[in-house]
Amino acid sequence: MNSNSNSLLLRALRGPLTLILIGTLFVIDHAGMLSFTKTWPIIIIFLGIIRLGERALAPEQTPPPPYSQGGAQ
Amino acid sequence: MKRSSVVGPLILIVIGAVFLLRNFIPDFRVMDILSDYWPWLLIGWGTLRVVEILNWHRNGQLVPRGGMNGGEWVLVIFICLFGSGMYAARNANLFRVNGIHLPSWDILGERFDFAISGSQASAGKTPRIVVENPRGGTRIIGVDSEEVRVTGTKTIRAITRDDANKEDKSTAFEIVKSGDQIIIRTNLERATNSRQAQADLEITVPKGATIEGRNGKFGDFDIENIAGAVEVNSDNAGVRLNNIGGDVRIDLRRSDMVRVVNAKGNVDIKGRGQDVELENVAGVATVSGQYSGEMKFRNLAKPFRFESQNSSLRVERIEGEIELVHGRLVGRRLVGPIQITSRSKDIELADFTNTLEIDLERGDVQLRPTRLPLSKISARTRSGKAELILPNGAKLDLKAEVKKGRIENDFGEPFRVREEGRAATINGTTGGGPEVKIEVGQGEIEIRKWSNEDAPPPPAPPAPKAPLEVTKQ
């Protein structure tokens, strides 16, 4: 149960952390060090890493099937 | 079900604070600050969110799934586009090497350079030279010769060398003589995408030439040692002129800097821009338009006039200097008559002669006449503080009043303060001097003597660069 909530936490943090990363890349760009046009793939890598983390933290058990077969409400 | 976040209210507070600052500090440059620091907005927003989410998590509350919803992402993308657009617009002319622009258009393709050269012999001693170079820097130097000589580089951005060669051919460089006029054309506007081409020119001309730079879209002008008139007309240019014999006319839609040094004729600058600097001008100087940067006017021998939307300034002669920075005008060693009107400005004048007239809607005035005898002074501000610092032995007939506020008399006798309700007046004469009239709507007036705390009067002629030191209370 605890690991599940950690996974949810990481998933919730994904958005804000991405936002911080984008901001940082633009700050680096404006400081004249590395252009954002070159550094943007870092965002994709970052998202991948976060997904991996979510997967690792997610509980082992297989999730229940998404739809109940019987069609009951 | 939506969880309320502190970010929304905080954004409102920040927007309010920014506009409040702008209202109180007239030259607080919101756009400049936003264009530089907007990424910190994203970082701040993200950090706040992280703190919030950790907090919710610790309190065992449900955390939102993605951390941010779709609407917020749309706003983020909007901020990124707007911010980087603003940044690019403002810094388009910041990247330069040796005063030559390298505008930030390197998005696609490669750069291909082509040499430019051309010359026109027997141009005469006083030819009229017209330069039409839409993009790129132009440097013109007057020399002892009767030949016009152009060298330079054309840079074309293209995917392949063939494309670049084609563009180079269609934008062939020309130098044409018609009558006593010599036209130098880079023809860059013929390129399929004129933004992809620029030419940096180095031109030597006979000293006596007259120069006209026209149809400029983007690029600096550096012009030196020309005995004739100089005229520059461009959409976006930095202009630096040095040692010009004739009249100077500069008309720009946008510029990061205009500097004219050592001009013997009249100087007329028009347009919008940031910094303006005039030094050692022998003729009448006029600056009109909107300028957001620093302005310095030094050693102008003839009448000088500055006009902007909110302010106007007239001075008979500037022996010292006037600096106009961020809503503050500091001047010293000025010869009047001087006339200043403004919606909002703080004014500090020291060592001025002849009559002085100041009329402000809002702003402080500090006057420090040092040369005797005094002349007629009239200063009005609807809202602000007026300070008059008098030298020993000054003869004047003082009439000052505050409609709402107070008067401080540190000068002592013979001036007397009289208070009536919220208004106050101070009158008195030190023996038959000129009339000195100060009117303040709301604020205060202070009359005092020179004291050791005040900066000593500047030594007679040479003392240009030291910043004016004034103790403010």
What shape does the CA trace of chain A take? Answer: elongated
Give the strand tally of chain B: 30
The N- and C-terminal alpha carbons of chain A lie at a distance of 27 Å
Topology, number of strands of chain A:
0
- Please compute the radius of gyration of chain B using only Cα atoms: 29 Å
What is the string of helix and strand elements of chain A?
Answer: HHH
Largest interface chains and counts: A-B, 23 and 30 residues
Comma- or semicolon-separated keywords:
heterodimer; A: 73 residues; 3 helices; B: 473 residues; five-stranded parallel barrel; two-stranded antiparallel sheet; 30 strands; flat; disordered C terminus
Describe, in plain words, how this protein is organized in 3D.
The complex is a heterodimer of chains A (73) and B (473). Chain A is an all-alpha fold and 73 residues long. Chain A is built from three helices and no strands. Chain A is elongated, with a radius of gyration of 18 Å. Chain A starts with a helix and ends in a 16-residue tail after the last helix. Chain B is α/β, with parallel strands linked by helices and 473 residues long. Helices cover 17% and strands 49% of the residues of chain B. Chain B has four helices and 30 strands. In chain B, strand 1 (96-97) and strand 2 form a beta hairpin. In chain B, helix 1 (7-24) packs antiparallel against helix 2 (30-58). Chain B is flat and about 85 Å long. Classes of the chains: A mainly alpha (73), B alpha/beta (473). Chain A binds chain B through residues 5, 8-9, 11-27, 29-30, 36, and chain B through 36, 38-50, 53-54, 57, 63-68, 72-73, 76, 80, 83-84, 87.
Q: Brief overview, please?
A:
The complex is a heterodimer of chains A (73) and B (473). Chain A has 73 residues and is mainly α.
How is this fold's topology laid out?
The complex is a heterodimer of chains A (73) and B (473).
Chain A: H1 2-30, H2 36-39, H3 41-57
Helix pairs in contact in A: 1-3
Chain B: H1 7-24, H2 30-58, H3 70-91, E1 96-97, E2 100-101, E3 110-120, E4 128-132, E5 138-143, E6 148-158, H4 161-170, E7 174-178, E8 181-185, E9 197-206, E10 210-216, E11 221-226, E12 230-236, E13 239-244, E14 248-254, E15 257-263, E16 267-273, E17 275-281, E18 285-291, E19 295-300, E20 304-307, E21 311-325, E22 328-344, E23 346-353, E24 356-362, E25 365-368, E26 377-390, E27 397-409, E28 416-420, E29 423-429, E30 435-449
Parallel strand pairs in B: 4-8, 4-10, 5-9, 5-11, 10-12, 11-13, 12-14, 13-15, 14-16, 15-17, 16-18, 17-19, 18-20, 22-23, 22-24, 23-25, 24-26, 25-26, 26-30, 27-30
Antiparallel strand pairs in B: 1-2, 3-6, 6-9, 7-8, 19-21, 20-21, 21-22, 27-29, 28-29
Helix pairs in contact in B: 1-2, 2-3
